[in-house]
Amino acid sequence: MLCREPRGGRSALFDGIEEGGIRAASSSSYTSHEINEHENERALEGLQDRVILLKRLSGDINEEVDAHNRMLDRMGNDMDSSRGILSGTMDRFKTVFETKSSRRMLTLVASFVGLFLVIYYLTR
């Protein structure tokens, strides 16, 4: 049978520990725990700063995208109105060319040449 010495096992377990040793050991582990907590808090603050920065950046991107969408909508509306004006002008040209009136044709060509010369001399 195994015969244990209760006194010997106990002394082997606590061998080398002085009276203040237990407190010192728990104090040093508590200090390392505090250090880990402090590092975690600093890392958490850094992450919070990054999250705030990314939130602002995404908000700015959202505002920029909205502004560009509004601008593109206005450009689309302007292009539609220009298309309407140009189609009206083309319809008038078709009407002029379908009549085959030489006098109207001469007037039209002379008007274009005169308009071109006026614009040319004004820009010069």
Brief summary of the model shown:
The protein has a domain at 22-62. Helices cover 88% and strands 0% of the residues.
Largest sheet: none
Q: What is the residue-averaged pLDDT?
A: 78
Q: How would you describe the shape?
A: rod-shaped
Distance between the termini: 122 Å
The helix-strand sequence is HHH
Estimated structural class? mainly alpha
Helix content: over 70%
* Low-pLDDT windows of residues: 17-27
Number of strands: 0
Rg over alpha carbons: 45 Å
Strand content: under 5%
Question: How large is the count of helical segments?
Answer: 3
How would you describe what is shown here?
The structure is a single chain. With 124 residues, this protein is mostly helical. It has a domain of 41 residues. The protein is 88% helix and 0% strand. It contains three helices and no strands. The termini are far apart. 0% of the residues are buried. About 9% of the residues have low confidence.
Features:
124 residues, mainly alpha, rod-shaped, transmembrane helix, protein transport
Layout of secondary structure:
Layout: H1 6-13, H2 21-99, H3 102-123
